[in-house]
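Protein modeling request. Please complete all fields; requests missing the sequence field cannot be processed.
Requester role: graduate student
Desired output: 3D structure, C-alpha cell encoding
Chains: 1
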Amino acid sequence: MPELDTVRGIAILGVVVYHSLYEGIDLSVFTPAQRLLLNCMAPGQFGVALFFVLSGFLITGLLLDSRSRLDYYRRFYIRRALRILPAYYVILVLLAIAHLASGKFLLVSFLYCSNLAPLLGIPMFYPVLWSLSVEEHFYLVWPAIVHRISPRGLVTVAIAIIVASPCLRFLHFLHGLHSGSVWLGFDHFTWNAADGLACGALLAVAIRAGIAGRAKLLLTSLVLFALVGAVAVVGLPFGIVSRGRLVGATFLWTLCNFASVGLLILFLLLGTSHFRRLVAPRLLLFLGYISYGLYLIHLLIFWGYDAVIRRHAEVYMTSLGAWRGLLVRFVVAGAISVGVSWLSRRYFEDAVLRLKEKYAP
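Delivered output (361 residues):
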C-alpha cells in the first residue's frame, strides 16, 4: 500500500520543517513576509498526530487479521521489537556519547518512558522520543485488548479513549492554571495523547467489519474536513489553535486527529482507485521509507550542525543574514539527515527486518 508510505512521508516532512524552520527560531530578526512563511511551518508539529492515527490503523488491522494465530503475541512482539528497538537504542547510545542527555533521562528512555520524565522531575533532553514512548505503551496494552474483545467492543473502547483524552487534557490544564505552573508538555503523557491511536484503531475496525463502504468512507472524510474547518474558525477567538490556552490545550489535538483520519481515508480511497498515482509521488514515498530513522536522527543532526557553525563558521553565517543562514541550515542539515536515514534504513534497519521471516514469519 504505497499510499501509506506517502502518508508517512507527509508526517515526517511536517515534523522536520517544524523543528528546522520554526521551533526555537527567533522570528523577530526576519521580515514580515519571512515571519509569515516561517509561521506556516508551525503546524508541522502535528505530523505526530498523523503518525499516531496511521499507527493505530495499521497495528489494529494487523492484530485483527492475526487474532486466530497460535503465535499471536509472540509474532507481534518479535516483529515490533525488530522494527523499533535497534535504531531507537542506537540513538540513546549517541546521546550518551555526545553527553546530550542526563543519565536519568537515558534510563527512563531505555524503558520507553521518556514522555513521563517530567513527572519524575527529569528534563526532556531529546523531545522526539516522547511519541515513541506513547506508541510503545500502545503496543504493550492494545494486543491484549484486541485479542480479548470483539470488534464491537473495540469500537466502544476506542470511542471511550477518543472522549477521555481531551477531557484529561482539560483537567490537566486547569490543574496547571490553579497551581500556577502550566507545562505545555502535559499532552505528551500517554493518557493525554492516546486519542490519535484510538482514532486510527476505530477506522481499522470499521473497514474490516464492513461498517463503512467506499461511499461512506468518502462522506466521512469530507465531513471530518468540514467539521475541523468549522470548529477551527468558530474556536479561533477562544484560542483553539494555541496549546497555551484552555480550549486549544483541550481540543487542538482532537482537531488534528480528525483531520488526520480524513486524510488517511482519502489516501486509502485514492490508493485503491484509478487515481493511485496521485498519492504515490516518489519524494514522499522515499521520505516514508526512511521516516522512522529520519524521525529519530534529524534533531540530532541539526544540533550537530549548529554546534559546528558556532565553532567554525559563525562569522561567515552571520554575514549571510538570518534568512539565508536559516535556508542553508535547512538544506545542509536536512540533506545530511536524509542521507544518514537512508543509510540506516538500507544497511541497518532492513538487515534487522529480514530477521522477521526467521523468527516471526
